[in-house]
Amino acid sequence: MTNTVTADRRHFEDLVVGEVITLGQVTVTRDMIFAFAREFDPLPFHLDEAAARKSLLGGLAASGWQTAALSLRMLVDAFLGKVASMGGLGFSDLKWKQPVMVDDTITGTATISALRRSRSHPERGIVTLQFDIRNQNNDPVMSMALANLVALRVPDAPLETAL
Amino acid sequence: MTQWFEDITLNAPYPLGAHTFTQAEIIRFGTLYDPQYFHVDPELAKQSHFGGLVASGWHTVSVGHARMVAALDAEGERLRGLGEEPGVSGPSPGVNKMEFKAPVRPGDIVSYTLTVTGKRPSNSIPGWGLLFNTIEAHNQRAELVYRAELVGFSKLRDYKMPLRLRLLQALTRVPGLGKLLRP
Fold first, then answer.
1. CATH superfamily name and code, B5-181
2. Is the CB of residue A159 less than 8 Å from the CB of residue A20?
């Protein structure tokens, strides 16, 4: 059965290690920080500007989870929405290097660092993407290695001939 | 944690509560942060190997974080009510590992548990300790939804600042000089 959503997209066979995906950019506003924090991270330094100024962070900052979610959004727009993605497997070595402060603009790259076939589901490939997210001053704010499933165009290709 | 670093028991699971995922909130989160068709469109999602709409892994993780903040806040309030001063948590430097194991579908009830598996005093920040935390999420069928290994800061109760650092801190409060001394 053909998946009409992903039929014309890039598949696992089309990806190469070393491909650098240039992400778009997003400016993190006060309203965005408040909206995310109210639902998912209601700590004073994400919700209250006066309290935030007195905190370790020195001002209103986005939740680290919001920085991660916005980075993912940029990856969906630039890459995952254009390949036959089958969802995420997880990630490793997520590092919040610097807080994202109100009105900061974040952007960055995601580089394909590894490609391998799934052993339990040979019709699926696993792509590893190394994120390098930076703010408007080019300071690194977050890095991580994300593992995502991408379907093969030829699902029964022998394992040994594949990457 | 609401306990002080020195009092935290290792490998004792701490329940953080549960959350029921509705279709509306799955789509709302997906639309903002992870607009892949199986997170935002119930009809198209039927074509995916999931066979229907599923929550973004980042959504289930963000809800897990919210549960943790709420549970620790409530425990802190309870301790204050008893006249005790709860321990202090700091920001997290990162996540070592996150594994998404089972999809979350509309109507699923996900329960979260926090376990501290290791701790040591911080080398970089005097007066604070590092906690190695594992968060596990299970659905109503007791299937593992995700497992995360996170690092967090926790304030030491019994810490006495060395004289050298106390002097340095006092000097940073001197106008003009402070700017030069701060990293």
1. Hotdog Thioesterase (3.10.129.10)
2. no
